[in-house]
Amino acid sequence: MGLSPKTSRLIIFGSLLAAIAFTGCGKSANQEFTALTDSFFQQWPALHPVEASELGIHSHDNLLPSPSDSVFAKKTRLYRSSLNKLKDINPRKLSTQNRIDYKQFVNGLQYRLFLSDTLRIQHWSPLVYTELLDQAFSHPVFGSSVVDSIRADDLLQRLDNLPRWLKQVLAILENPAEPHVRAAIGQARGIAADLEAHSLSSQFETITQDALRRLGEAESAAAIALTDFADDLEQQILPSSDRNFRLGAAYYQRMFHYILQTDWTPQMTLERAEKQVRTLQDEMYTAAAPLANQWWSIQYRNPSRAQKLRLIQRVLNSIDNNRQDPEQIVSYVNSQINQLKEFVRQHKILAIGSELNLSVSPGSPHFAGFPLVSLRSPGPMASERRGVLIIQSIPGNWSRS
Prior knowledge:
The chain is mainly α.
């Protein structure tokens, strides 16, 4: 089990934020729920500064969350007290929007308690911390509408705190699981490479040369600390990482429920997934068949599943041999960005307002191929309207994986 950057970081807050602005319908249940969410979000940012930054709450952009047991205990108390208060609210008396938020809120709090209290994942998975760092130093987090000098100072403090923070992480780890350690090593080195390339300081346009120099030095120092951290994981932690990372059937079922928010069993989901895979393969064959006919004069009247898959593979391999490099792709997407935004709006693929200022950026090498394209947009609490469309590089063996 690994923590996905997209799955774990904001699972509580997908639709819950609408409740903060809710003014109530004159019913006590709605008023109690609104008061509870208000209270929760007054306490939450200080304990989750990186996630708060992503949501657009920039009051703690200079901080990294302490990996100490005392801070995890504070988080647990906040989650438990919020769950207990939610039990006193009858969701059937809530408005439609608040009922949805209520369910999201309960599921997210239970999931976080399951990770921290039941699995105690913060003690045996360094991925908890490396995935957090990928968020902590992402472009959108420091691409807010806050003036450059303040953003730069926040970033400088977060970078300066990193070496000490990494030592605390090493100290808290207890017999980690080997797959998690290996993945964390790769992530740490990937983030270090990004920082060494000064990918963050280069975005500031109005700060002084002295401030820019200090930021660059801090990025380089942070990159060294991350490289040392990866080396320590590899040399000191990995050799003794013999923990069984598998959850077992009961825990797996709970994790499955929390992440997918479904009552389906894994077997039900697998059967539906396999059916969808066959549907996608048929669609890929429909797209590949004309190309195969055009390029190699290959035509099948009633192809078997195996013939379809071989033809799809051959077409993909041919495309792979002639694909453009990432710089060409980013340049092309940049030239088409306005048309892409309009296409997304017309087909309602994502909720993109007309005021969103969207730019294109190449992705980090350590995330090559996962995913190929992603949108990092301002958090729902942010006042800025700048987003980044990230184009990941494509691994050389992508068509055969």
